[in-house]
Amino acid sequence: MSKLPDHLDIHLIRILYLLLCEKNVSRVALKLNQPQPSISASLRKLRELTGDPLLVRGARGMVPTQHGESLLKPAKRILDETERLFVHKTAFVPQDASRTFHIAAPDYMNTPFFLELVSRMRRESPKSRIVIHALGPETDYVRLLSDGELDLVIANWDEPPQHLHLSKLFDDPIVCLMRADSAYAKRTASDAMTVEDYLSLPHVAPWQVLPGYHGIIEAYLDRQNMRRNVVVESAYFGMLPYMAAQTDLVLTTGRQFALFYEKTLALKSFTLPIKFPPMRFYQLWHERVHQATEHKWLREQVGLVAKAMVK
């Protein structure tokens, strides 16, 4: 690279390519609408740069030297690649696009949301691929977004990084979920759950979602100087409803998540005596894709699914 001239004009490479193709200075001058002396001067410069005559006299005019012949394909490749650099980006057409979208979310994101999102994207962009990534304490999602390895993060943490773009999706009220035939579930409606009841019941809870952060339930209780009786913690949120269905454990979660498992397992959700703030779900993305048409389309699909979820 150090042997390259400080100012290598792409036009000079175009002249090199045309000279090797046309093998005639006058024809190249006509093609480029330049005077013949100018093309002859460029040929002299090219000979100086390459240390080779490039074109020599043959029986029927000029012919490329062996070295000149070897430069034909590299010159064309450079011109083709340069042209691609400045081609206007074509519009994103979902039905025709073959794009791979990378979306990350914690596994407590309710199942119906992603079922509907995948279904919608399969309808709207059937040639595209969708990769759903897990989010855990070890996931550096900020770096993955900035490096382009993730397109979008869907989450509900208290304080997302301020330098990322954020769009709110929906609020999900917090309820508790327990076995439908548990002792508490059989209590009469007039015997409402008290704060003491809730805190003393045996709870199952997710392990750290992010380093040092156990989620909005624990964060809120800490602010209120309250502590619940967590007897089981699991890094696998999808296991928690099944644990609650088979034991006396109580699971505190969003209503959308709870409703899904009420339909599939012998579980029942209850209103809580503590006024937890709702789970506020949002989507996050990096500035590098903020204006990209396909990313705008992706965020729109996520937003439409979220809007349908809360109707």
From TrEMBL:
Segments forming domain HTH lysR-type: 8-65
Keywords: DNA-binding, Transcription, Transcription regulation
Protein name per UniProt: LysR family transcriptional regulator
Stored Gene3D superfamilies: Periplasmic binding protein-like II (3.40.190.10), Winged helix-like DNA-binding domain superfamily/Winged helix DNA-binding domain (1.10.10.10)
PANTHER family: HTH-TYPE TRANSCRIPTIONAL REGULATOR LEUO-RELATED, TRANSCRIPTIONAL REGULATORY PROTEIN
Family stated for the protein in its record: Belongs to the LysR transcriptional regulatory family.
Organism field: Glaciimonas soli
Listed Pfam families: HTH_1, LysR_substrate
Highest taxon, organism lineage: Bacteria
